Amino acid sequence: MKLLEKLGGMEKxxxxxxxxxxxxxxxxxxxVQYLGRKGVVTTAIKGMKNVAKKDKPKVGKYINxxxxxxxxxxxxxEDVFREQEQSMFENNDMTLPGINIDIGxxxxxxxxxxxxxxxxxxxxxxxxxxxxxxxxxxxxxxxNIPKNHPSRETFHTFYVDGGRLLRSQTSTAQIxxxxxxxxxxxxxxxxxxxxxxxxxxxxxFMFYQIEGFMVDEGIVFSDLKGxxxxxxxxxxxxxxxxxxRPHYFPFTEPSAEADISCFICGGKGCRVCSYKGWLEVLGxxxxxxxxxxxxxxxxxxxxxxxxxxxxxxxxMLKHGIDDIRLLYENDVRFLKQF
Length: 338
Ligand code: PHE
Description:
Number of strands: 10
Helix content: 40-55%
CATH superfamily of the largest domain: Bira Bifunctional Protein, Domain 2
Bound molecules: phenylalanine
Order of helices and strands: HHHHHEEHEEHEEHEEEHEHH
Radius of gyration: 38 Å
Number of domains: 2
Strand content: 15-25%
CATH class of the largest domain: Alpha Beta
Shape: elongated
């Protein structure tokens, strides 16, 4: 009998759906679907009037049994869900506060470093990483800082075993990269440097520097100025001005220190710039031909510039942080502000 076959199929489907139900909501939907006023079973009962008289008892019995079966199946499953719900409430104190998950972010120093690198990378500089444990050659001699030369003293240095040292400046990358590559060369190099300075509000025995340099035929001082001015405006704001003061570095000649007009007071003088209107941000100059001799670059053909800046200082200026130690204490109450 076709109808019985159809009802058999329905029974199978109902059992499968009830087994798969995963919530009280699912069960309620099934109840409506099968036993509701317009439900499948109810519709089958209504259809009884079209069944041949002799088949009526058989079909009627089947439908009745089916109705009871589906009903008890749904009830059974409902009991299971209710029990689960109950035990969840009993075993858990729902009034306890939830677990707060702190979402981390990059350290303000790393944000500063990446922002600065990005600006130079957009100008075509290649970002490189070189070792923190160095030889005297890369940290000093290659950069025209011979042994016993007084300028060596300004770069207080930690020495480690085997005549090695913890680099005291990121200028080491000049020699490392120029040894490896021929001009044109355009590099930024960021990382940690170490100096045995007494720790105070503006000194740390470890801090971050970013070095940049460019070597090719015909590079002149105005290229250096253009690159650095573009950087200053990108990083500190369009209205920032830059000035260069003569200075001395063994590996650049001529050398300069560069200041930006105070981006807080616009140059009028305030607490941040110690009422000078200017903030010192970096050292720079034209690469000394003696450095080129060390890496066997043709000094009659190539010129270049280099600059170096302290990431910590720039980070502190940008965010108005007045003590470098805050950057290294890992106090989340401080770090969360950035
Ligand atoms: N290395 C220098 C320092 O640590 C900074 C610098 C880099 C100056 C490149 C000139 C050119 O003080």
